Amino acid sequence: MVGQFEPDKQLEKWVDYIWYVSEGEIPQARRKDTIMPLGHMNVIFNFLDGYTMLEKGVQRSLPDVAVVGQIKTAKTVYYGKSVLQIGIALKPTAFMLLFRKNSEDFTECIEEGPEMLMDLHETLKRIETVEQKVERIWKFLKERRAVYYRDDQLMEQMMTYIESSVDNFNVSVMAEHFYMSVSTLERYFKRTIGLTPKAYANIKRFVINQRSECDKVLYYDQSHLIKASKLYTGKTPKALTYEQDEITLDFIFNQKSDKNRSV
Length: 263
Hints:
The protein is of the alpha+beta class. It folds into 2 domains: 2-150, Jelly Rolls, CATH 2.60.120.10; 153-240, Orthogonal Bundle (Arc Repressor Mutant, subunit A), CATH 1.10.10.60. The chain has 10 helices and 11 strands.
């Protein structure tokens, strides 16, 4: 079972959603999973068997509390015989406030979580259901938000601008729109988001294109779409339309599980 919980109004500027993966006995074919870039950052809590990530041909064990920065290409992970993971898909601005570090310092980075997340993990292990665990995470985030929240309207405007112009994105036009030089825009955006505006636009372009229910295609030709699909998912667009062994891709592109709303 894979699903996600949407934030309430109080947390919608901090969190895209909380996701979970829960399977008691995973067939061998489904233990390999593909994690794709989506433009946000993740905190992952692992509760059952250990899991690994494939990096440069070597499988690396991942911590039970992992902080995952921006990724720019598809990553491959391998689950154990059973899996129960809950992840917080954090907006990059919230990531900076929560961890007191620039987002660019975590690009392509996976680290063990700090003590505050270790403590939360210990608490979550004593809570029985996924829904109750998620409620405790919301409580934790609201407590942290009360201390650290700072509105970043400029970055929100920039992200909205990019997502509304992914089909014809131009960083020079964006810089002019926000009365900045290209270099100033790129430094500010990368420090906050962890990616350049162009890299962020490319990720969003692919995601929006794949999820679009209209006839408009955001790529000029099939070769560019195939290249982007292989970069971000490890598969061709045609392959994504079929039943996936990979748990995450199956959920993202086929939406076989229910979405929930939790406050």
